[in-house]
Amino acid sequence: MIEISVDIVDDKLAEETATLVETLVADKVASKIAAQDPTLWGPDAEAESAIRLGWTQLHETSRPLLAEIDALRAELHAEGVDRVVLAGMGGSSLAPEVITATAGVPLTVLDTTDPAQVADALAGDLTRTVLVVSSKSGGTVETDSHRRIFEKAFTAQGIDAASRIVVVTDPGSPFEKLAGELAYRKVFLADPNVGGRYSALTAFGLVPSGLAGADIATLLDEASAAAAVLSKDEDTNAGLVLGAALGVRHSEGAEKVVFANTDTSVKGFPDWVEQLIAESTGKHGTGLLPVATEGIDAPGFADAGDDATTTAIGTPAGAARLSTSGSLGGLFLLWEYATAVAGRLLGINPFDQPDVEAAKKAARALLDQPPGSESGDEPSLVDGPVEVHGASGESLVDVLRSFVASAPEFGYISVQAYLDRLDDASAELLRPELAKRTGLQTTFGWGPRFLHSTGQYHKGGHQNGVFLQITGAVEDDLEVPDRPYTLGVLQRAQALGDGQVLKEHGRPVLRLHLTDRAAGLAHLVKAVQEVERP
């Protein structure tokens, strides 16, 4: 078993952290979290906290799931079904993606509304495919759309769709009822007293990962070993040390936490922890903004300023101020404890997400508009294969320079790509290029995936971000059965809806629409490379 550890490289930070940990130990914060004490975050948070602390015991309470998952996997394999597709958003997709990537087993994750990416998943061998649909209520528009599309595709190939759909949901949810009515293959019920971003070790994380072939029993063993340490009121408790270090740095003006993997065998962890931190702490004008980078030499990590805490996942290296290492199950629990501790220090409720619903409501309102009513959305500038919306200028480079200049000192740039995460992967080049050219911390998110992650921080956290939306032309759209919209229309509504809410918060939003995706991305990257560092 790999022991979890926190290493603080910065001597001054280590000293300040140790002082704060003494207070946390005296207040018995660790043991109270383990005992699910809802009073730790103040009276305003008590009602929510009382029903959101089940994650502290999942290493034990989730064990009955193991036999059920193993039995279903054996049944499916006996029928020749060994390809797992997951439809889920936020915590329902991020944890399984990290678990299966670390285990080296294949899992097709659908947390997108891009028609081409969904079509790519449909193009796989459906005779060998099981669809896991994960949603606490069943009302998540993306996962509901995926379910409808796959159900139709299974039926079209003469496959009994109900036998190929597995549901993960909360007990008593509308989705549990619907799954029963439609006689879906299996319904797994998750712990209702766990929020989505803390759900890695619930059925939401374990079912798709276990069906895909990951060793989820060992994952729970790793978490169990970590829990024995994290629940103790001791000054060596890694959860207290990490939470305190983040709190100290925030009090000094470092409201960003910049991540890079070093020598760890854990794959993609920053993408999971990003949601945990942003959605838990980003509210009431405060919070910690996670920034996932490409490595210790990447812009934003190697040259981070005083507004950021550089954090290695693995042993410390490069410019890291601190690092965390250990097994995946241990790291899940370590960062959950630390985030809960940081929430206490920041004076916020780490278990609610008051600003998430705003973008969903705006998107629904746009979907309800009659076709053609958006005709006023004309570009202010067309530069080759890129249309500019929300800004004016002589050229795309001119527009980008003005956009970057609108960010305050120690602000951040958020790049939001409503594109195909596979075919349009070159969009990820924009993060390091913008960070290098501007000296600003820069995040990158695939839309609408990030709406269930950092989207809360964008509206509720420190209001110093500027937002670059990238949308693209849809060549072959996909109908959503029994719904009055296509995936392309839904994707566009999600982008415009979130942009509208950000503007209502007074934040600069620039939308660039690619009339040709490949050419547009190449043109955009080239333009970004001409944006000088201020």
TrEMBL record:
**Which EC class is the enzyme in?**
isomerase
The GO terms this record gives for MF are: isomerase activity
Q: Which reaction does it catalyse?
A: alpha-D-glucose 6-phosphate = beta-D-fructose 6-phosphate
Q: What is its EC number?
A: 5.3.1.9
Keywords, comma-separated and alphabetical: Gluconeogenesis, Glycolysis, Isomerase
Q: In which pathway does it act?
A: Carbohydrate degradation; glycolysis; D-glyceraldehyde 3-phosphate and glycerone phosphate from D-glucose: step 2/4
Task: Show the InterPro entries listed in the entry.
Answer: G6P_Isomerase, SIS_dom_sf
Q: Which family does it belong to?
A: Belongs to the GPI family.
Q: Which PANTHER family match?
A: GLUCOSE-6-PHOSPHATE ISOMERASE
Stated name of the protein: Glucose-6-phosphate isomerase
Organism name? Kibdelosporangium philippinense
